[in-house]
Amino acid sequence: MLKKIFNSAITWLVISFLLIIVCTKIFMIATEPKDIHYHYDGIKYSIEDTSLFEKTEIYIDGKFKSSLLGKPNEFLGKIKIRDKEFDYSAYPIKFSNENLAPLEHQIITE
User: Fold this and answer.
1) N or C end of the chain: smaller count of CB under 10 Å?
2) Domain count for the chain
3) Are residues 43 and 91 in the same domain?
4) Helix (H) or strand (E) holding 30
5) pTM of the prediction?
6) Residue ranges in the chain whose pLDDT is less than 70
């Protein structure tokens, strides 16, 4: 009975179609941009004099876009460190395979 069902060309076509739909949905979920809204408390200090330190705040707002097919992951948004704000909305930060990225852009406000 099962041999007759799985030998049918229509059955294999339906199974293939369902497999394609499931794989496409998994890919879409994995690569969907994720909203990021983080707030970190940090400390700014000097290597020469470690007794001098001050509290600082870091805000990260934007979208993180991951990729599965070899393209670099990207961050689009703004990073604010104390009173300096970096805007990566127009030119996203691209991460390497090791998830490292250079922060090169103009400061918006100081």
Assistant:
1) N
2) 2
3) yes
4) helix 9-31
5) 0.65
6) 1-7, 104-110
